[in-house]
């Protein structure tokens, strides 16, 4: 199969193959390299620096400024639907730039996390354990391409609908370029905006999908570790020294898992916190646009944008809830092991270890609130507050009337 030859890590490796959990982030890290935020390779130093400069100048730095400048200089020329289409993306572009800068400053933690995954893989000796790791790797890479597809579909559908309507996608401000003056300037600005949005979507995929890509192999190793805990002390042929050694190995195994989470916490906490700040506002503007102003083509683009916004936080929040359940299941698995028939010293270590396992692994957003489905729903509920406020204050009708008045008052 051609696709399997091009992207082999999207498919499960045979059980006999050694576990390589770092491949769960293979395509993610390649795209992060293409974002231009890694150390430039010696062979292509100049080319990589030029590419990094062009991409980050247009998408990371100038695009948020272009949105704001466009509102200041041409706000009166926006229709309500065009303004909301641009505004919903503007908030997301500002948050995307902040997330890119956070990942840029902490990008070495990806390599540290992969090194810990290599250490965890060395403990996988049974074919069933390797199969679970291979399954998580393939699923992680497929999810990454799902993210990429959804984001690119949004950027392309928005550009196509805007071109059919005869306006640029977001009407950003570009010096010495007036898309209303001539046709070629219109297409030039549309192309520049599409390139910048594709770059922003490319960056957004990386900064939004990496928590999921790193969480899936963690949960696979947690499941393997759970079964290992459950088997403790159940081999009748083991000597007490061997059982004690296996218990100590499990304690060390758990410490490695905790160190993996500690490496990822600053990254995850920063990017998810930024997204929680804007998700409600962005979804609110999108709902207002869909319900009150958008035509059929704009609704398609707006719905695809809503899918992108939901993907930015929801999957990882669901996985965080699952991770909490996994932690409680670790404690249950240790309790189900054969510790009752062991000596007093063994039982004392089990008791201390059990207390440690009962503490769930929690990721915090900005060290303020926990990342969970409940927090995600609370952040998203703000979108309905925004919609209700706009509807009760009749802001939508006032915008429509003012735009209609300006068009009628414009000189012919």
UniProtKB/TrEMBL annotation:
Q: Does the keyword Iron apply?
A: no
Q: Which InterPro entries match?
A: 7tm6_olfct_rcpt (IPR004117)
Residue ranges spanning the membrane: these are: 45-65, 85-107, 144-167, 272-293, 300-324, 361-390
- GO BP term, example: signal transduction
Give the UniProt entry's GO cellular component terms: plasma membrane
Give the protein family: Belongs to the insect chemoreceptor superfamily. Heteromeric odorant receptor channel (TC 1.A.69) family.
Q: What name does the UniProt record give this protein? A: Odorant receptor
Native species: Drosophila virilis (Fruit fly)
Supply the source organism's classification.
Eukaryota, Metazoa, Ecdysozoa, Arthropoda, Hexapoda
């Amino acid at each position: 199969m051609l696709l399997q030859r091009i992207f082999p890590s999207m498919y499960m490796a045979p059980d006999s193959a050694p576990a390589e959990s770092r491949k769960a982030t293979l395509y993610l890290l390649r795209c992060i390299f293409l974002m231009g935020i890694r150390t430039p390779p010696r062979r292509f130093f100049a080319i990589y620096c030029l590419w990094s400069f062009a991409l980050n100048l247009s998408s990371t730095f100038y695009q948020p400024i272009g949105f704001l400048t466009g509102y200041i200089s041409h706000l009166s020329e926006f229709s309500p639907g065009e303004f909301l289409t641009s505004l919903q993306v503007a908030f997301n572009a500002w948050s995307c730039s902040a997330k890119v800068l956070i990942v840029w400053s902490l990008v070495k933690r990806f390599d540290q996390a992969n090194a810990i995954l290599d250490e965890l893989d060395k403990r996988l000796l049974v074919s069933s354990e390797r199969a679970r790791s291979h399954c998580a790797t393939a699923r992680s890479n497929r999810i990454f391409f799902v993210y990429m597809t959804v984001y690119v579909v949004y950027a392309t559908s928005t550009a196509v609908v805007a071109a059919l309507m005869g306006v640029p996608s977001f009407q950003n401000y570009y010096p010495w370029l007036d898309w209303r003056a001539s046709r070629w300037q219109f297409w030039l600005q549309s192309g520049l905006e599409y390139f910048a949005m594709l770059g922003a979507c490319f960056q957004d995929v990386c900064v939004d999908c990496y928590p999921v890509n790193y969480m899936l192999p963690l949960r696979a190793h947690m499941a393997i570790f759970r079964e290992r805990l459950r088997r403790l002390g159940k081999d009748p042929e083991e000597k007490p020294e061997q059982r004690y050694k296996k218990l100590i190995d499990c304690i060390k195994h758990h410490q490695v898992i905790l160190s993996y989470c500690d490496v990822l916490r600053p990254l995850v906490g920063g990017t998810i916190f930024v997204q929680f700040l804007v998700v409600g506002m962005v979804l609110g503007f999108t709902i207002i646009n869909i319900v009150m102003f958008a035509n059929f083509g704009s609704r398609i683009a707006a719905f695809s944008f809503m899918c992108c916004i939901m993907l930015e936080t929801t999957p990882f929040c669901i996985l965080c809830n699952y991770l909490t359940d996994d932690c409680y299941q670790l404690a249950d698995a240790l309790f189900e092991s054969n510790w009752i028939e062991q000596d007093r010293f063994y039982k004392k270590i089990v008791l201390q270890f059990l207390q440690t396992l009962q503490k769930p692994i929690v990721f915090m957003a900005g060290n303020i609130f926990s990342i969970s489905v409940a927090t995600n729903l609370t952040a998203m509920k703000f979108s309905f507050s925004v919609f209700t406020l706009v509807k009760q204050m009749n802001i939508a009708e006032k915008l429509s009337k003012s735009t209609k008045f300006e068009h009628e008052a414009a000189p012919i």
